[in-house]
Specification:
four-stranded mixed β-sheet, nine-stranded mixed β-sheet, alpha/beta, 345 residues, UDP-N-acetylmuramoyl-L-alanine:D-glutamate ligase, 17 strands, 25% strand
């Protein structure tokens, strides 16, 4: 009997983010006052599961990851349990929950991050029980921030690549995401995963670091023609179906059949922007939902851009996200940003 697959599994980082607003970032051995503290679930598995649940509350979702047996892990679990369509039965509860201290410098409008890997460092391919995972899509990440899955594999290059190949062999469509790390590890850890990825939806920095190709001109302008070159390079590295790159200016997408889509960002007034945290995961979630539903590349990208824009209106990266049809209407109705180097469809 052929297994009928439905739903999306989100596997990877589960993080408790502590946002701490400080007067200014201190120099060594000096003090700065913390004015406000807020905490929210973060990381790919949490952000995307919550975003997708807002986009479609009836969509079956499975979260795969590791949380510590501690108060931070319980906080994340309770947030996810508030959505009846999210299955948490694949979670491993062990060790200490990963967390990030985000120091928000009020004077200079900058953010500095301190990341504790915690239980995420131990997430491994064995935690993905593909035999009982009946989903249609598996989205995994962040590459560069999962120690065991980033580890070498003699046959597939990395443990992440081995996991993705096994999922594809089961008939599951695969998708990956990367963390925007300042390092040279992209060229070593990302290409093996690309060979077993059906969908790659990443930001322009991650795309440029993976391929070694520029996406901006000498003046710093995002260029759609350069982005399309990068899409072609990522397909040549093994991606099977869609490549989508997103940036501050908009998004560029390409399908394996050669379809090309270039769309601008929405012109959201600055006064309405509360936080940019998690906007990338919101964009990805919208695009992934479009792919899952069999929508066109252009329609999926519109949902992604609208989801990202909606996420900006709340401090929590997912609370502002609307249902899929509302997001599609939001993109069509809102004014678009106009950037000289971004050719628009």
């Amino acid at each position: 009997m052929v297994l009928e697959r439905t739903g999306i599994a989100l596997g990877g980082n589960l993080i408790l983010d502590y946002y701490k607003e400080i007067d200014s970032y201190p120099t060594h051995s000096t003090l700065s006052t913390i004015r406000r503290i807020n905490r929210e679930p973060g990381g790919l598995a949490s952000n995307c599961a919550l975003a997708l649940s807002h986009i479609d509350p009836k969509l079956p979702l499975v979260v795969i990851g590791r949380l510590g047996a501690d108060e931070a892990g319980e906080f994340i679990r309770e947030k996810l349990m508030g959505h009846s369509n999210i299955d948490l039965s694949h979670l491993v509860i062990q060790g200490s929950t990963s967390f990030t201290d985000a120091m928000i410098d009020l004077a200079h409008k900058t953010r500095t991050y301190f990341q504790f890997r915690g239980a995420n460092a131990d997430l491994c391919a064995a935690d993905f029980d593909l035999e009982r995972l009946s989903v249609k899509f598996l989205h995994v990440g962040y590459i560069l921030l999962l120690d065991q899955l980033d580890a070498p594999d003699p046959e597939f290059g990395t443990q992440m690549a081995r996991l993705l190949q096994a999922a594809q062999a089961k008939g599951i469509r695969t998708s990956i995401d990367i963390v925007s790390e300042a390092s040279d590890r992209f060229i070593h850890l990302v290409p093996p995963a690309l060979r077993y990825s059906d969908y790659v939806i990443i930001n322009e920095y991650e795309a440029a670091m993976t391929t070694g190709l520029p996406v901006r001109d000498f003046a710093g302008n995002f260029r759609s023609d350069l982005a399309l070159d990068i899409c072609r390079a990522l397909f040549a590295m093994g991606v099977s179906t869609w490549v989508i790159l997103h940036s501050r200016e908009g998004a560029v997408g390409m399908s394996a059949t050669g379809e090309q889509v270039v769309l601008p960002s929405l012109d959201l007034p600055t006064a309405q922007i509360v936080s940019t945290i998690g906007a990338g995961d919101a964009f990805l979630s919208g695009c992934l939902y479009g792919a899952y539903q069999g929508r066109s590349l252009q329609d999926a990208m519109k949902i992604g851009i609208a989801a990202s824009t909606a996420s900006l209106t709340h401090f929590n990266s997912t609370e502002g996200i609307l249902a899929a049809d509302e997001l599609r209407s939001l993109y069509d109705s809102m004014p678009k940003e106009m950037w000289p180097a971004l050719e628009l469809n």
